[in-house]
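#struct-queue
[09:14] JT: dropping the first one here, sequence first, then the structure tokens:
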Amino acid sequence: MFIWLRLAHGEPMEISRAALAEGVAVVPGQVFYHDQNTMEPALRLNFSYAQPDVLRQALYRLRKVLW
């Protein structure tokens, strides 16, 4: 249902906002940590409701945000 995407760089909240501006909703990983001092930069990606062609387009848009 979900993919946990560890980020090599960038701030997850900023990346999630930029992704949303591209039409892709992702969840910053920090919302899943009770102690944000020990968190790793990550995003949670949900794929359970999307069709393959929608997922491909979402990944293309997310890639633009990440690179």
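[09:21] JT: and here's the second one, same format:
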Amino acid sequence: CVAKALAAAEAECQRRGARLTDIRRRVLELVWESHQPVGAYALLDILGREGWSAAPPTIYRALDFLQQNGLVHRIALLNAFVGCPRPGHAHGGTFLLCAACGMAAELDDSDIDRAIEQSAARSGFSVTRRTVEVEGLCPACRAGDGPS
């Protein structure tokens, strides 16, 4: 999944005329490798162990770039980031977050998107960006197979 995500990111950056620098590419790679939401300081720790001389502003700039170009989503509840599986496709993020194990799953549900747009329009509101975060328990944690 990491190779596929990086190829899609490179294609999207080329389409937008944006530059996927080495540090941006490595941060994106680490986000995808984590398979869970990952915070900026965890990324900084990993990069430091790998010999990168990155400071917090460098990581935050890379994450801002990735977010602005639709390559990652920020999970506000966790102050963490996940890779976007559909770069180049206009969409908000709707996430299911497991309170026990930290798993995050992005929903691709046009009914949710439409309901938000219609409700906003009825209020005279124009949506420019949206993120919906729903916290609960994933199937494994509900079944008692998750972390204890």
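[09:30] RK: nice, looked through the second one.
[09:31] RK: The beta strands are 72-75, 80-83, 93-98, 104-106, 131-136.
[09:31] JT: good to know. The chain has a mean pLDDT of 90.
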